[in-house]
Amino acid sequence: MYRNAKELIDICTTNDIAIWEAVLSDEMDCTNASREDVLSQMGNVLQVMKNSVVDVGSRGTMGGIIGGESKLMEKYITSGKTICGENIDKVMIRALAGAEHNASMGKIVAAPTAGSSGILPAVIITGAEIFELDDEGMTKALLTASGIGKIVIQNATVSGAEGGCQAECGSAAAMAAAALVEMAGGSVEMSFTAASIALKNIMGLICDPVAGLVEAPCSKRNASGAVNAMISAELALAGVASVVNFDETVKAMYSVGRLMHPSLRETALGGIAATETAQKISKAVHGE
Q1: C-alpha distances in angstroms, 105 versus 52, 101, 102, 115?
Q2: pLDDT single digits (tens) 58-109
Q3: Separation of alpha carbons 104 and 258, rounded Å
Q4: Among residues 18, 36, 52, which one has the least CA distance to residue 140?
Q5: Which CB contacts under 8 angstroms, 24+ apart, belong to 26-34?
Q6: Of 24, 109, 115, 204, which is most buried, counting CB atoms within 10 Å of its CB?
Q7: Which is nearest to 253 in space by CA: 160, 116, 119, 143?
Q8: Rounded (5°) CA angle 48-32-25
Q9: Cis omega before residue 209 (within 30°)?
Q10: CA gap 237, 1 in Å, rounded
Q11: Contact 254, 166 (CB under 8 A)
Q12: What is the C-alpha separation between 261 and 264, in angstroms, rounded?
């Protein structure tokens, strides 16, 4: 059992194991499930994630506020003149597709929330292509990500209503960044460095959904969250330090979330949701 990053790092260091192995053992202890059962369950999670990010632009969303963004990105990259390059473009397309899938009531994995559900699958699947990993490799990466998520939940929050979008997309990006580092063969310490950087990168981000729906600006934040995870992993793999460790970063995020005014925490009363355009959309959606 681990309660924070320090304890998980100690377990990994003492036993000379990767994060995913420590998380797997912890899950077996907590649920009394066999190794095979845990891996099978995570394999099922992976399949849902895969399905949630391949449905590019073919479904209408509940509010009709977003839709087709992933298709536009997919068409755009065929020009061969994009700014970001193939890997970043792919991860954005998949993250947008995941957000659209969620907004159209498609089956998703809340990782850690529905509003941030496009980030982790986009990064894991794209990472597997980069490093030529199979489903087993992706399953291990998801275990690593879940270990990071567990630490955040035990010491802070992943709820936008409690901590703003930093708690949702920030936590998802941290989970994805740590997993990506491990997929690349980085150390345990590097994984937590990447997670720290990713969470710090959007510290203070509010939750301000237009019309109270998880569509805008949420879908674009899934795209930026996935890219955040990738650059955070790259920095960590290069040896760039976080300066502040993951446990302290999580505590800081939670403190910031608690300081946020209620209008900035998923109530749709502040931020982008309070703009004139957003108010018009809200009236059109809700018939007010």
Answers
A1: 11, 7, 5, 12
A2: 668 989 999 999 999 999 999 888 999 999 999 999 999 999 999 999 999 9
A3: 31
A4: 18
A5: 26/1, 26/2, 26/147, 27/143, 27/146, 29/1, 30/1
A6: 115
A7: 160
A8: 75
A9: no
A10: 27
A11: no
A12: 6
Looking at residue 92, which CATH number applies to its domain?
1.10.4100
Alpha-carbon distance 260 to 205, whole Å? 10
CA pair distance 44, 49, nearest whole angstrom: 9
Q: Residue 165: pLDDT above 70?
A: yes
- Show the domain range for 33: 5-286
Residue 40 CA to residue 158 CA, distance in Å, equals: 25
Residue with tokens 């900035």: 264
At 12, the amino acid letter reads: C
Burial class (CB in 10 A: 0-12, 13-18, 19+), 39: middle
Tokens representing residue 187 in the block: 């150390």
Number of domains in the chain: 1
Residue type, 277: T
Q: Kindly report, residue by residue over 27-49, the tens digit of the pLDDT.
A: 999 999 999 999 999 999 999 99
265 pairs with which residues across the strands?
A: 207
Q: Taking the alpha carbons of 212, 213, 214, 217 in that order, is the dihedral positive or negative? A: negative
